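Dissemination and training. As part of the outreach component of the grant, students in the summer workshop were shown how a complex can be specified as a set of sequence lines and then modelled as a single object. The example used during the hands-on session is reproduced here so that future cohorts can follow it. Participants entered these lines:
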Amino acid sequence: MLVIEDLKVRLGGKEILKHIDLVIEPGETHILFGPNGSGKTSLLMTIMGYPQYEVVCGKIFFKDKDITDMSINERAELGIGMSYQRPPSIQGLKTRQMVHLCGRNGVDVDSLASRMNFTDFLDRDINVGFSGGEIKRSELLQLMAQDPDLLLFDEPESGVDLENIALIGNTINQLLERDVKGTADKSKKEIMKLRTKMGLIITHTGFILDYVTADKGQVLFDGILACRSNPNAIFKQIKEEGYEECVRCAS
Amino acid sequence: MRELDKKAAEAIEKKAPLGPDINIDAYAEKPPIHNKVDDLSTLPDDDKDVMLQAGVDVNEAERSGSYIQKDSSAVFSFSHDDGLEVIPIREALEKLDWVHDYYWKLIAVDTDKYTARAHLDLQDGYVIRALPGCKISFPVQTCLYLEREGSTQIVHNIVIAEEGSEVHIISGCAAAAHATKGLHIGISEFFVKKNAKLSFTMIHHWAEDMIVRPRSATIVEEGGLFLNNYVSMRPIKSIQAYPTTYLEGKNAVARFYSLLVGSPGSEIDMGGRVYLRSEETRAEIISRAITNGGNIIARGDLIGEVPGVKGHLECHGLILNGGFMHAIPELSGKIDGVEMSHEAAVGKIAQDEILYLMSRGLTEDEATATIVRGFLNVDIPGLPSKLKAEIDRAVQLSQKDVM
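and obtained this result:
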């Protein structure tokens, strides 16, 4: 479970998250909406533990541990992973090695890559010259190897072409255990109850909602989580009337 | 010979324009005479260990030939391939007239005091020749090994890739584990003839008080390819070298790749210069340098003399724990229609790269090491993958000392 209590965060001296309370239960996936500059990426980066995001007050708990002061790699080891929108490129580090590192050498990189339609990129330097869509596939490939329990996605569909959008959507579903089916001895509902993976997905376009069935939607506006509701309903509201109206409705 | 003797004698005090001036007589310990060996596996284990780290395999597995020099003595020289000749240079100068057509032909004997001394006090060195049209299947290995503390090692090497041949050479230069102080002067002249391909990979594995003064030059004829890789990651007191290549025939290509690590107390001044003298010649000089507290000067110089030539220079430097890094890329175009570019960067490891890797579960130290390894991992087109794997192995062995 992820629990964020009264979180206030500063970046470069400026307050970017004012008051955040958020609970993600095991098995739950939340969609995070919000206009540009509302602090969505900052919230993800703060949960991941980037040191430039200074927690002024409040606490973050994950799996019943206070992780507010934990380093990034300690959080990764505890089971938090992130798919970045614009990750840095690293010269000379092959994508293959990167995926190995993510999986602590215990994964079959080739078979994961073929599932992600990414085999041709394995011997290229990570993120060097990748298009927006290629970056997203590379990020998901790394997360598949890392297999975290809480997955943070920063606009996983941006820059992805129509051909690959279904691949991205379905992969996120798999990573978050959303693609479950009933079996002979357990109903789908029972299996769903056993899920533990948690997700927090930033989306701008809402395309991802066609593939990922999320449990809750959150609207981040001006550093505050302003509304909590059904993600599809929120998205419809935003599409029709914009964020201003959406926030006004909430308050 | 007499003309060479005279010129050398006149230049015996001539200082080199680059690098700290060295008093050669301060390295006057007399090297012992080492007996020839019939089988490299009979070499002492200590020697083998060091040689291995410089890329030399004493079992000669997958080697077409070997030349091993200890101090001033050529102790082993052998070719396993009919298309390949490996001969100690003193023997070659004595017995083979044609060798004189190559001796001091690309480098002037009076370039500086080191070239002068190399002629007057020549100890030994190798002549390696791939016969016309012969593709030498496995790499040829050479090792110049300095054992006597405080001595001077002087070698002169000549490499000839005859028309249409292909040969790959790994040259390990190393000091014995117990030797810290010495001077190595090495002259190398490379001749890449029409449509021939020569790759020369030099791995330096010297010691903290070693002075090294290589002087090398290459001529590449029409359609020829010269690939030069240089790896120096161990501490060294001072090395200064500025190998020069002349692309003299249409479509000739030269590529230089250097991986340098400067440890505290190290003074590294390493360059690469290519004259593009014929149409459609191409040159690439790429260096990656890391300083851990040493001084590194990375020079590169491309001179375009005819239209239609292409060249690119790249010097990237990382300062990890203090030190000094000076990238000096130079381009000169002497006529319309040359196409040359350069890219130089000196900096530190980007924090966002470290954090990215940490978010995948690596510690900060693991992340840093991974980025440094990547920085030193340069793709070298045209190098056989096995040879690349050997270079990677040597780099990794050396890296253990660095990080």
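Chain B touches chain A at residues 350, 352-353, 355-364, 367, 370-371, 373-378 (CB under 8 Å). Students were then asked to discuss how this feature might be tested experimentally.
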